[in-house]
Fold this protein.
Amino acid sequence: MKALSRTLERAAVILGVVALAGILALVAGQVGARVFLGRPLPWPEELGRLLFIYLVFIGAVEASVTRGHIAVDLVDTFGLPPRADRILDLGRDLAMLIVLGVITYGAWKMIPVVNTMRLPATGLRMSLMVVPIFAGSALMFVATILGAVAHLRGERRAITSSTGETIEMVE
C-alpha cells in the first residue's frame, strides 16, 4: 500500500512538472509570436487551458495522497480520544469517497457526450477536457481508499498544515 501511494505521488509530481513546463512553453511561444511575428497564434491558448486542467487534477491527486488539501480542523483541536479521532477520519474519508464517486461517475457519463465536439482552434476533441476530471477524481478515490486502509491498520497518514509543515507522518 505504501509503495502504491508513493508511486502515485511521484507520478503526479512528475506529470505536474511536465504540464507546468508545457504551459510555460506555450505562453513563451505565444508571447514570442506576438512580439517578433506581430501576430498571435490561435492554438496556444486552447492547449494552455487544456494543460491547466490536467495540472489542476494532477495536483489534486498529489494533494490527496499526501493529505495536503485544505481542511477545516476545528474538531481536531478538541483533543478527541484516539478512537473518536479514528472514527472522525473515517467519516471524512467516507464523505470524500461519496463526493469523488459522484464526480467520477458524472465525468465518465460526460466523456461520450462531448467526444463529438471539437475545440475551435486545434480541432482536438472536447472530451480531452473531461478526461482529466474523470482520471483525477478516480485516482483521488483510490488515494482516499489507500489512506483509509492505512489508517485502519493503525498507520498515521501525513497531514500537511497550511504552512506546509508535516503534522503527522506515515509510519
